[in-house]
Design a protein that fits this description.
Layout: H1 2-40, H2 45-56, E1 61-62, H3 63-70, H4 74-86, E2 90-94, E3 101-105, H5 107-115, H6 117-129, H7 133-154
Antiparallel strand pairs: 1-3, 2-3
Helix pairs in contact: 3-4
């Protein structure tokens, strides 16, 4: 009987591994879509996501908010911000009474964001709109559940 149990477990593991492989492939394909858009527009991944977040937040955010939201090290975010500032897309302004700095678009940055980042957001909206409301709710419900379970299991490592 133990042999059958082991065969069933091996079979289940193969199915799970195949599904994980598909999941990882989808995630990497998704990341690749954004990476190609960033590269095509002369941006690093970090710079792209900073500009994206600025569009979501309508321009007012701090470096620490970016680090926390995207789980990126301060050094990575700082390097991307310095490059964006050097290229004239953003300006950093000291926040009164704090070590933090607000990240603001320059006129050039707003123009660039309208030509690129807002088009990315419109493409995402169109993709989401391609799902029924029920599919959208199910997609996000399952993705949140999987992410929660993954986080819980990764804490053990």
């Amino acid at each position: 009987m133990a042999g059958k149990d082991q065969n069933t477990e091996d079979s289940n593991n193969k199915i799970i591994n195949k599904k994980l492989s598909e999941y990882n492939s989808i995630i990497k394909e998704n990341e690749g879509i954004y990476r190609r858009v960033a590269k095509k527009n002369g941006l690093s991944d970090s710079a792209f996501w900073i500009l994206y977040m600025m569009c979501e937040e309508e321009g007012k955010l701090t470096q620490s908010t970016v680090c926390d939201t995207f789980c990126q090290p301060k050094q990575t975010v700082n390097s991307a911000l310095k490059k964006l500032e050097k290229e004239g897309f953003v300006k950093l302004e000291t926040v009164a009474g704090s070590n933090g700095k607000h990240i603001n678009f320059t006129q050039k940055g707003w123009k660039f964001a309208k030509q690129t980042i807002y088009r990315v957001i419109a493409s995402e909206q169109k993709a989401i709109d391609g799902l029924t409301l029920k599919e959208q709710e199910e997609f996000f419900r399952l993705f949140r559940k999987f992410t929660k379970l993954l986080k819980e299991n990764m804490e053990e490592i």
